[in-house]
Amino acid sequence: MFQYVVERWDQIWFSSWQHFSLVVQCTVLATLIAVVLAALVYRSPQLTSIANGVSAVGLTLPSFAVIGLLIVPLGFGVVPSVVTVVFFATLPILRNAVVGLAEIPPTVVESARGIGMSRLRTLLQVELPMAWPIILSGVRVSAQMVMGIAAIAAYALGPGLGGFIFSGLSRLGGANALNSVVVGVVGVVLLAFVLDLLLIGLGRLTTPRGIRVQH
């Protein structure tokens, strides 16, 4: 195993960076999409119900099947991988964003509007900062989930450590097959751990102290 890692260190490092970059960029995009959708629906019980229903149903879909279906219209490579990862990353964040915005006391919003803040300004400067800890918890769950889904995306020849896993599985019993699988799996676990630590640090930096104490 040690020799396998040393001989392929450059490839492992590059694949790890691709994997990490794919997950981070897709999670950022998913967060933006989820927050915008939540801001549009959280004041309507009917729309909130639909958003929660979509999130619940979407999370039951097998990621492998979704990637397989996307290969037909999008082909192989980065595009189906990005679409799949963004889709699954959006779902937990959307649910948490809706909950976080809906739980803000109406009196707080009324006070902000009472001092002359516009609806958009109230959302950006009052509601979203207050809901941010709950939204961020959804981002952490989402990031851990899609770290594994990004590995499955290698089925569509997507970037990342999944290539080591599928390569090893396709030739089990052959030379270095198990080493390839172990490198891929352990690499994904380590990246997930690193990303979660970074998100914890982000939460400490971006959450106002008063709100952090309340949560």
UniProtKB/TrEMBL annotation:
TM segment ranges: 20-42, 177-202
Topology relative to the membrane: Multi-pass membrane protein
Pfam families for this protein: BPD_transp_1
Keywords, comma-separated and alphabetical: Membrane, Transmembrane, Transmembrane helix, Transport
Domain of life: Bacteria
Parts forming coiled coils: none
Localisation per UniProt entry: Cell membrane; Membrane
Keyword Transport: yes
Residue ranges annotated for the ABC transmembrane type-1 domain, each copy included: 16-199
Sequence similarity: Belongs to the binding-protein-dependent transport system permease family.
Record PANTHER family: GLYCINE BETAINE/L-PROLINE TRANSPORT SYSTEM PERMEASE PROTEIN PROW (PTHR30177), OSMOPROTECTANT IMPORT PERMEASE PROTEIN OSMW (PTHR30177:SF4)
Protein name: ABC transporter permease
Species assigned in the record: Curtobacterium subtropicum
